[in-house]
């Protein structure tokens, strides 16, 4: 348990507690932690509000397992659900409630994904190109690179990465995959680096926005 506390520091914890406290002090209050992660926020709320029931959601099974261990001493006051935001209503109903008193979203990518090389999110570490928040469903990043058109890849890089070289990188990926599938982060980095004009190579890592 000490290892979990050391690797995970909840963001703005005291401020979150302060803002939600008026809604959670009543007997039978229900809080949804829509981004459970490693359970840091949930642990604090369960400690400070002894009558609280917490419904924790996460699409990452590994996060649910870690949080479940961390929150085991509150087992009679928690319901952990493998789902995405769209499943909040179903998760609440499945836990036996028809309303909640508060919902917490800690938006952003978790270090649980970024720091695990095998998840394939980081361009600095070689790993299979997975990049799924939920590794049990959906296409991998390698699947996207293998099947999306040049236009679709360009749109993704432009819209979600603000990548000015989106078209150039998309063309390079299409050309490369005709020779060999791009299945690892190091392979994608090589493709992007080779497609980057020499004058821009010193202006940050060429794979940063694409990843």
Structural write-up:
The protein has a 4-stranded parallel β-sheet with strand order 3-2-1-4, sandwiched between helices. The chain is elongated. The chain contains 10 helices and 4 strands, in the order ααβαβαβαβααααα. It has helices at residues 2-7, 13-24, 40-48, 61-70, 88-94, 111-114, 141-147, 150-161, 166-177, 185-195, and strands spanning 30-33, 53-58, 78-82, 102-104. By secondary structure, it is α/β, with parallel strands linked by helices.
Features:
Rossmann fold, DNA polymerase, domain 1, 2 domains, four-stranded parallel sheet, elongated
Q: What is the C-level CATH assignment of the largest domain?
A: Alpha Beta
H/E element sequence: HHEHEHEHEHHHHH
**Strand residue content:** 5-15%
Output the CATH homologous superfamily of the largest domain: Vaccinia Virus protein VP39
Query: What separation lies between the terminal Cα atoms?
Result: 32 Å
- Chain-averaged pLDDT: 92
CATH third-level topology of the largest domain: Rossmann fold
- Total individual domains: 2
What is the radius of gyration? 21 Å
| Order of adjacent strands in the largest pleated sheet | 3-2-1-4
